[in-house]
Design a protein that fits this description.
The protein has about 300 residues and is α/β, with parallel strands linked by helices. The chain is about 45% helix and about 20% strand. The strands form three sheets. Strands 3, 4, 5, 6, 9, 10 and 11 form a seven-stranded mixed sheet that branches. The protein has a two-stranded antiparallel ribbon with strand order 1-2. Strand 3, helix 5 and strand 4 form a beta-alpha-beta unit. The longest helix has 24 residues. The chain is elongated. The model has no long low-confidence stretch (mean pLDDT about 90).
């Protein structure tokens, strides 16, 4: 089955922009003409590809088709560069990573490689338990995830363990944990949570103190640097990767609340089995450097 490139471009533009109107502007078409291209593609495949909502979303069939289109586009770009006068023309690669990895080891690990290979990153940031969804729905070509099982057509390689420690400022400990972290005080002490997908602190309290998810007060601060600063300032206690703790100034004065009970999150690199040479080299570099940076 052969596909019309203009129809495929229309589909990708609608999903990436979120609406037919925005996609039509990008492609210099009328919304009606763009809609006709998408419908022609749906007719050819015999299934609906887009849920016409606000924003527009891909159906399960549309997600599978988008996976194919993005992989083909990336491999075609790599092949085109091989035969052009500019073999190192920039290529954009969409990846999904968790915020703690991005803010600690990912960029230092890949910077020299990205410069040498002239790769432009298109990063999606999400919790390590949810980055895999972005690979499933065709948004990205690879992801760092806490999920072990690889989906059909993909491979998963272990990267290592991201080790977290429960920490708080000295002033916070003096106020809330004068006798150490105990169940009664943990139930009342404010918790720093990254976002509503972040379950690290909740799982720690459930495992060690039997506290359910709604049994304690919490802040939500969905940015790594402000999150860490809030702990240093004494707004609450939270989990910080040891990689970050090692880089923080000595005068930050953070206390490890349960040094004998760190939380290890095993991370995996998920990628398609069939990938372009440049993406394959990126995957190999990521796995190699991750295994040095992580436990």
């Amino acid at each position: 089955m052969k596909f019309d490139t203009r129809q495929c471009a229309a589909l990708m533009s609608v999903i990436d922009s979120g609406s037919f109107e925005a996609a039509a502007q990008q492609l210099n078409l009328t919304p009606s003409a763009l809609s006709q291209r998408v419908r022609a593609l749906e007719t050819q495949l015999g299934t609906t590809l887009i849920i016409r909502s606000r924003p527009c979303r891909a159906t399960p069939a549309g997600q599978r088709f988008l996976q194919h289109l993005r992989r083909v586009a990336e491999m075609e770009q790599d092949l085109s560069d091989t035969f052009s006068d500019q073999p190192h023309a920039p290529v954009s690669i969409a990846l999904a990573v968790n915020a703690d990895s991005l803010d600690s080891w990912v960029l230092p690990a890949l910077a020299d490689f990205l410069i040498k290979e002239n790769i432009l990153l298109d990063l999606c940031i999400d919790d390590q338990e949810h980055t895999h969804t972005l690979l499933e729905n065709g948004t990205v070509l690879g992801c760092i995830s806490a999920q072990l099982a690889a989906m059909r057509g993909c491979e998963a390689e272990v990267l290592g363990n991201m080790r977290y420690q429960a920490v708080a400022s000295k002033a916070f400990c003096a106020r809330w944990f004068p006798q150490g972290m105990q169940r009664d005080s943990a139930r009342l002490a404010p918790v720093l949570t990254f976002n509503r997908k972040d379950q690290l602190q909740s799982q720690f309290l459930l495992e060690h103190f039997g506290l359910s998810d709604n049994a304690f007060p919490r802040h939500y601060i969905p940015a790594t640097s402000p999150y860490n600063s809030a702990i240093v300032l004494g707004l609450g206690w939270g989990m910080i990767p040891e990689l970050m703790l090692q880089e923080m100034p000595d005068d930050s004065g953070l206390v490890r609340l349960a040094p004998a009970h760190p939380v290890d999150v095993t991370l995996y690199w998920h990628r398609w089995k069939v990938q372009s040479p440049r993406l394959a080299r990126l995957s190999a570099k990521l796995v190699e450097t991750a295994r040095h940076a992580l436990r």
